[in-house]
Specification:
The chain has 4 helices and no strands. By secondary structure, it is mainly α. The protein has a domain at 35-67.
Length: 67
């Protein structure tokens, strides 16, 4: 049996990522600030490269990330 290495994924599904993005977008709209990719990553506590890597490593996330 192989050991899992690294931290668990931040998002279990594209829908989970989309829900967090919509939550962040609502905050940005309320505070009248731009909805930026890098700001979303920071708000989630992860690096923007990690979110981008989801599109490469898990193709099911690519549509959500582009959206």
């Amino acid at each position: 049996m192989a050991n899992k290495v690294g931290r668990p994924r931040q998002f279990d599904s594209p829908d989970a990522m989309l829900q967090k993005a919509l939550e962040f977008q609502a905050i940005c709209t309320e505070e009248e600030r731009p909805f930026l990719f890098i700001s979303f990553a920071s708000w989630m506590g992860i690096h923007a490269d990690t979110i981008t890597r989801y599109a490469t490593d898990f193709p099911e996330f690519s549509g959500t990330i582009k959206r």
